[in-house]
Amino acid sequence: MQRLAQALLAIGLVQAQSYPNTTNPTNSSSPLNDAQSPPFYPSPWIEGTGDWAEAYAKAQAFVRQLTLIEKVNLTTGTGWQSDNCVGNVGEIPRLGFKALCMQDSPLGVRFADYVSAFPAGGSVAASWDRGEFYRRGYEMGSEHRDKGVDVQLGPAVGPLGRNPKGGRNWEGFSPDPYLTGHAVAETVRGIQDAGVIACTKHYIYNEQEHFRQPGNFEDFGFVDAISSNVDDKTLHELYLWPFADAVRAGTGAIMCSYNKANNSQLCQNSYLQNYILKGELGFQGFIMSDWQAQHSGVSSAQAGLDMTMPGDTVFNSGFSYWGTNLTISVLNGTLPQWRLDDAATRIMAAYYYVGRDRDNVTTNFNSWTRDTYSYRNYYGKADYELVNQHIDVRAEHFRSIRTSAAKSTVLLKNNGALPLTGHEKWTGVFGNDAGENLYGPNGCADRGCDNGTLAMGWGSGTSDFPYLITPLEAIKRVVTDNGRALGSVLDNYAYAQIQALAAQVSVAIVFVNADSGEGYITVDGNFGDRNNLTAWGSGDALIKNVSSLCNNTIVVIHSVGPVLVNSFYDSENVTAILWAGLPGQESGNAIADVLYGRVNPGAKLPFTIGTSEEEYGPDLIYEPIAGHDSPQDNFEEGIFIDYRAFDKKNITPVYEFGFGLSYTTFSYSNVSVQKVNAGPYVPTTGLTTAAPTLGNFSRDLNDYQWPSDLTREGTFIYPYLNSTNLTEASFDPQYGLNYSWPAGSSDGSPQARIAAGGAPGGNPQLWDVLFTVTASITNNGTLPGDEVVQLYLSLGGPEDPAIQLRGFDRLSIQPNETVTFTTDILRRDVSNWEVESQNWVISKYPKKIYIGASSRKLYLEADLDLSEYQS
Ligand code: NOJ
């Protein structure tokens, strides 16, 4: 570790960490403290299960032709900024196979021009609309495809959102695993139907930015990566749940995260990668490391890592744990050939699974420059060529982006103020969040500032805006089209001007925001994670200044998650409140659509809004913990996050999970439960096949030497050897030391199958339908509208949450029309994870369903008869 710290220092990765004044949450007497992760070997090999058979066969045929060098090239990144994309592996010129390109982000194509900025995941989650999830995925995938990207680095379901201050929560969907599970599955299908591999990330427990990686900090010195210490039940019932959905939906790649889990670095955690992901969940694609999240060579390969990103040990070190060293490890027999073959096969299987062999354009942009001609190897200043073709890949996506954003806008309060007519005599628009960033929408690198209206968070989970419609311009268009008056004050601190305008207008629309992002950028003292849950730019004071003088004040919140509304939500002068999330490029048009009733809001909160941070559970860890190299982040609250925590502690939130109003009203009636005979649950048994080896490799070290016609380009990572003496060829100073590798890690013989496994996603019987539930929903108002009908389930046991989401659908209903809500209840939905048997069981406790308009507006209920399944 010391060596790594020095290396990080050497390349200037010394970070200044900022932190709010909080007490450290970790309880040192917790049984989770210093938790250990058990070993599990060998790494399961792909077998082509589920619908992967054809892709698997094609991948095997491809990999069988490859030399050892070529296989290594497929698995090892070529180094930071060494090629067009944020991550690239080596090419296989002999077969005309171009280098694979991995590109951020979960909301669009990062570092490229003429691309769209879609609503963030945490925003579109509020639509509760599977069609929107799919369409957004498809359109994002299409844009990646047309720019020549092979792997889109998204969607994100880790962080899940354990704590609302987690800096990257907005890249994912919702702290509810069921909602997130549906969102990720549809997104993966969308991206992959467009012909691009989805990389679901970050696996797993990457719930905060502080200390996510080892580093040297100004205030603390060296601190190792944080360890998220989590028990098995919490893993299965909460954090793994959406990953299972992603695997079942066929995600071609999964990114292992920066943090440790139970004190084992994630990308070399054999339990979580081998046993859980590739074993129990039957993942058929490949595991890719987060950028510099790999901390070992052979160990990470044995623990299931298939691709290292960006390939160098630390950015631009010129060294790799793999590359040359991976070649050597197979040549000297440390790593069995079958493991490298498996990694290469998994990568190629994902490639064929999504049809990259059919619809594949050459990468036509470069992440590191917008110049048309430049160095393709930007860091190495090599390969000067046409790098940016400036291809516009946006098609007509602006239309659906606007629709999605409007469909994801939650109406939290409405005293009849909305919808506006557009004929208000004088409209006042207030707040920095209503207008332009003076540096332009992309003026701060990776959106690392909070100037102007907030339409995405900051960090790698971003794309460049092709334009950004501000709320002010969209509102102004409506008002001026009607010949009315509009004034605006965009400086939150211009008190005199704010008061002067607020005292005059007929309606005041106040925009506030709260931002967060990835920890390599600190904005206003927030090191990625939020320091608090309040609105930025003294948003509360702004609302107060306006609403104390205008009795028709409408508040719009753009934010990465919950914002405390205590100071204004119940003010009489605040006549309406909207949560507009992070809407992407069409922000202004979308909010105007809702404000002026062109769209009737139907979104529901994908999280809870409480009255204090403490209500949500344990705080983030902002400071290291004495006596521990790695801060010990004990997930003591288990599965009780967000509404489950509020319910457990009997705290009444301000706006509960699932809450959202409409301009019309709905009523619920006629619940009915139809039982489906699914038969008993059969644990998976038997043995796997033996690990296949694909082709042979030469043992003659001369075959692996640097080709005489190749010049090393900067810090580019290659698979070759520079000596026939392996000690010399390896740049590992400890090469040749007598390591003992974990028992079983090289064993390619048939292995026992895992009872809770059996197919991608887990035991396929978990998806058996046990009940079909229906209910009638009537629109009682005068406007057509959408209602997100929600089904919650009580598992009934003393350790179970009061209720958990287990069904939803967004229904469009005409006035006076009644439509039927239908949802299936799966075996998985009524099961608990049983640690002793390492399987899902249906407990003996009575189970009940509730149907309603939010997690606290439950209008219908029914019992579930599960007697024949209960143990
Ligand atoms: C690190 C981030 O954690 C990950 O999400 C991203 O895909 C990579 N950097 C590449 O930019």
Automatic annotation (TrEMBL):
It catalyses: Hydrolysis of terminal, non-reducing beta-D-glucosyl residues with release of beta-D-glucose. Its EC number is 3.2.1.21. InterPro entries: Cellulose_deg_GH3 (IPR050288), Fn3-like (IPR026891), GH (IPR017853), Glyco_hydro_3_AS (IPR019800), Glyco_hydro_3_C (IPR002772), Glyco_hydro_3_C_sf (IPR036881), Glyco_hydro_3_N (IPR001764), Glyco_hydro_3_N_sf (IPR036962). Pathway: Glycan metabolism; cellulose degradation. Residues 1-16 form the signal peptide. Residues 787-855 form the Fibronectin type III-like domain. Transmembrane segments: none annotated. Residues 21-40 are annotated as: Disordered. It is an enzyme of class 3 (hydrolase). Keywords: Carbohydrate metabolism, Glycoprotein, Glycosidase, Hydrolase, Polysaccharide degradation, Signal. Residues 21-31 have a biased composition (Low complexity). Pfam families: Fn3-like, Glyco_hydro_3, Glyco_hydro_3_C. GO terms for biological process: glucan catabolic process. GO terms for molecular function: beta-glucosidase activity. Belongs to the glycosyl hydrolase 3 family. This is beta-glucosidase. It comes from Curvularia kusanoi.
